[in-house]
Amino acid sequence: MRQIGHFIGGKHVAGTSGRKANVYNPATGEVQAEVALASDAELDAAVQNAKTVQPAWAATNPQRRARVFMKFVALLNENMDELAEMLSKEHGKTIEDAKGDVIRGLEVCEFVIGIPHLAKSEFTEGAGPNIDMYSIRQAVGIGAGITPFNFPGMIPMWMFAPAIACGNAFILKPSERDPSLPIRLAELMIEAGLPAGILNVVNGDKGAVDAILTHPDISAVSFVGSTPIARYVYGTAAMNGKRAQCFGGAKNHMIIMPDADLDQAANALIGAGYGSAGERCMAISVAVPVGEETANKLIAKLTPMVESLRIGPYTDEKADLGPVVTKEAQARIMGLINHGVEEGAKLVVDGRDFKLQGYENGYFVGGCLFDHVTPDMDIYKTEIFGPVLSVVRAKNYEEALSLPMKHEYGNGVAIYTRDGDAARDFASRVNIGMVGVNVPIPVPLAYHSFGGWKSSSFGDLNQHGTDSIKFWTRTKTVTSRWPSGIKDGAEFVIPTMK
């Protein structure tokens, strides 16, 4: 049995806690490895290692830090096939989807190559009589990232790339469900020239999370996962004096206006709703056609498309989507689908009985399409995180707009229309963090920030873009005056510009 430990101080380290978790092949249900679950002492060892080397890394000029990421990006491209295979084998997503996962992380690494410019601050000459004033952005010290199973390449890089580029050391606690790729990324960072100990990977479960949140030497924490855990992480981190950015659940709507190109909208819904088996925080899980005629036409287009989805293991090059990540996830999704039927929604396409010959023990869920879903139903309120699309019919634009605005989550939303006025009004009024206009998955590019609103996000600063530079640094402001022109004697009033 393959054993997966930790990566600390530039070396593979076997677990010593005696606690392990199984890593499954989602397509077969077979155990393919065991991953060590860290104790508090193991987490502390990684932190102490990082604490030793971080000051020298922070003192390294930003251009040299940028060169590490130049080399790292080249290594990611050189090893793309290996990385995608490693990711797919543990997650279950298709090879092409896995490559997309890695590439979206790579793009943030490309962005932080600009750290010499991004980390520049402000200077005011003559801010007062013989006084200059300037600000400095300095690393927070040691940062930590707690990442989910659904993007084991992208989200770790979204966190550690800006943190490390800013001069921090980093402790990564990836999901124990697919831990191999994050360790491989750490190896490649060492190969790219990163000093040992700056990026450490510590595998674990809730025990490791709590150890991160309470460790006195960790200054900042980034988290992606479910909303209940995001609230817990944010509150616990703040209580322990850490800055935190925590991203939670989602229920992303797509509004389809009567004037929309329905072929384009249907294709967008299939890709955004069923890609990666729906295990994306930016998946479209609610379609909102405006008007009965629009709804009927949309259902007519979607039904055969959902029925013809090709589902298979990652080794099937023609597969549109693979299995979900665990047996527990499969059972949860099935339970929600059953409950949707009980609540009165119409299950137009029923994928519950899907079986794949030769992979009967895999965690597959067939594509499901619900119609006549209403906002009081659990399948509307809950993030299903599976290949399930719910259609909620709206009588008019205002009713359609109100649905995402009233929902607990505020991660992403999209509108499909040919009407520029409607699109502009929608983008302006909707209380959602990321908006797509004729774009189904509005994930911003690396140089803009990623983050939702409402119960989808906790904290003031988002991931990647310039927000990430602000999050992983502290601002120090210096007021400087030299002896020439300084009056003798003490001054007892607060300095002003009067």
UniProtKB/TrEMBL annotation:
Top-rank EC class of the record's enzyme: oxidoreductase
One Pfam family cited in the UniProt record for this chain: Aldedh
CDD domains: ALDH_F6_MMSDH
NCBIfam families: MMSDH
EC number of this enzyme: 1.2.1.27
Gene Ontology molecular-function annotations: methylmalonate-semialdehyde dehydrogenase (acylating, NAD) activity
Residue span(s) of domain Aldehyde dehydrogenase: 14-478
UniProt record, GO biological process: L-valine catabolic process; thymine catabolic process
Presence of the UniProt keyword Ligase in the record: no
Domain of life, per lineage: Bacteria
The entry's keywords: NAD, Oxidoreductase
Official protein name in the record: methylmalonate-semialdehyde dehydrogenase (CoA acylating)
PROSITE patterns named among the record's database cross-references: ALDEHYDE_DEHYDR_CYS
SUPFAM superfamilies for this protein: ALDH-like
